[in-house]
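Look over this today:
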Amino acid sequence: MRPTNVPNQTPETAILKALPGLPVLPPRNALIELAVFFAIIVGLEFGVDSLPDLNELEPHPFWLPVLLLSLQYGTVSGLLAAGVSILFTAFMGWPEQDIGENHFSYLIRIWAEPVLWIAASLVLGQFRMRQISERRVLHRNVQELRVQRTAIAAYSENLRERCERLERNIAGRGDPAGKALLNALAVLGTADPELFQLRFGAALEVLLGAGQYSLFALRGVRAELAASHGWSEADLLHRSFAADDPLAHHLLVELRGLTILQAGDETILAGQGMAAVPVRSNDRSRVLGFLKVEQILPERMGDELNSHLEMIAARLSGALELMGGDAILIEGDGRPRKAHPSRSQHWRKKRWHSPIPAPQGLTQAGKKQQVTKLRKPKIVR
């Protein structure tokens, strides 16, 4: 999103940001007020003869500018008023020394009030400076929040326009991602062997992303590689698994999916994959093989991966049945019952012959009855 230009700051905000600390010099208004106060006091002193001498008035008139400027503008303005008051007092003349008054008593008497002016300007001015500092901080925060609020409003308006434009673009176009997923699922259930072999990897990349995938079909007492994608000659991956192999046993006999996210499953996979699920027939009465993932993107590796693989395996069952491989029948309680050849024909229209020889002299019906009485698959080394 392109940032929106921040509105111009007010002069007051610019001054606050340029001078974050306390002021060193008195403000212009303090100088003007100081000049007005002393002009009035000195004018009354020299212009009105009926008024008594300033040194005889109690309290001294110069207390007025010292207190007012200290309370209004702080220490700097108060000290300036005290200094000007001392200069005007010296200019108009100090009180005369009394007869019999020693020098130290005279100095204490004439300097007591000027010293009090300085002390009052320091004490009262510091209280005022603390208030000014807190007020400046609050004012600066208010200005910053105002600028942020304006910027957020501009960003929100820009975002709303972009969202509306995006909604119009999405509403006016199709869903290519959804079409690609549907095409990939359609390819996995295709009856054309050449089309399946060529597009097996492309379909899985659309569904699961880039990686290495393989499909194994049960042939006799071994699970043979039927299709693969992403394999290289440097990969030490098995192209077949015996029936007593732990990986094939858990997938084809125990009918349990495997994933490296489980500690026990990682030992069973033994570096041959990251996840695997069995492939069952459409009626879920036979096990035809298994689907295995050797490599996958990290963001796709999660607890839901096996669920995704089971949905893909359901689409692959049709292709494995058309291959005409063997199958393992499953009892009603979900346990495998016996090895059995698939009832489907080979892709080359050749009928599959069972690797288990039937006794001599049995009719076709007798052969079926003999197969039905088998309780466990016979494993041939």
Q: What stands out?
A: The longest strand covers residues 286-296.
